Amino acid sequence: MSFNPAGLSLLPEGWHFNVSTQTLLRRYTVEATPPGASAPAEYESTAPTPILPNVYAVYRKGIVAAFAAFTAPAGDRVDFADGLRALPLIESAFHDDSYIVSMNSGFFRSTSRYLAGSAGLSVALTDDLSAALGLRYTMAERTLDAEGNFTISSDLGIPVDTLSRGLHARKTAYGFGAVVGLNYRISPAVNAAVRYETDTSLDFKTDSERSEWAHTPWLWPEVFENRSRQRRDLPAVLGAGIEVLSPCRRALVSLSMNCYFLENANQSECDSYDDNYGNGMDLGLGVRYTATPRLDLSAGYQYSDLGGSDTTYNDLEFSLDSHFIGAGARYEVSPGLDLTGSVAKLFCTEGEGAGRFGGSIYNKDIWYFGLGAGLSLPSD
Q1: What is the pTM of this model?
Q2: Around 282, how many Cα atoms within 13 Å sit in the side-chain half-sphere?
């Protein structure tokens, strides 16, 4: 539904439901040399995401299919128990250049959650052509909780002060967007689809309980001052795909593409996107094979360029290019009821920062485990 809403009018008449969840096991690392140190340190986060739910419902009658969905389209979580190099970098800006700031202990925790509810209609215009229109409501939350305990030393290495600073902030926003799509059945064995998602304007409001590092424009564009507002829109997306059924009718091959128009979302002078972001893109290939009348097996690959580069990478955000490989299975328990399972691995291309984050090495490694169930209740 999320990729090809226009194709829902091809479903059998009646009700169709799908519930699924994913578990993400992450390992993020930042390798960097802290101020005043002679050797690099590795900062690691292994915070998982236990549940990432998605719920879909479709009702088709005649040429019209009505759909609704609750999804978690985006989100992330990090917990660097030993802090990050960014913390002493921030603190150094509050002191004269003749002083050296070293971090004795600290932590850095951050989350981002995006939840979306959508609804719309898919209409069969002809036997082969259908169109869809939907609306989407997105709720977003971003949090940051960081603290560092520091020793301030003179240029001779003599300690002159110790102090503790931190930041605890929560940012929330909501917005509306639209989705339009077309589906065209070229032949009984070939189906093509295209969809366009408008950008979603998100004006984040900040509530800070502790804000000693609330505004650090020399490091990153995001602001955490209490009661401040800052835009971070979800970009418009253009997606297209094609499916081809093999002559034996047991294998289905699909190609897909998504373009993320980040450059258009990055127009406001007060947004939190780095000005050096470019547009992003996904390219995917998938194969589904009917092993038995009740068992389907699948495998897929996707390459993602999220528009980031060395000039956008920082300790708070590093959007790395990635390769995604996955496999799954669908088993028909009984007519109308099926169960699905999947496993996938995200391999990211190592990134290196620039400017104040020059020499910082960024890596991500993510495992995905998915479970789902589908139920179809055909009309009498």
Answers
A1: 0.90
A2: 17
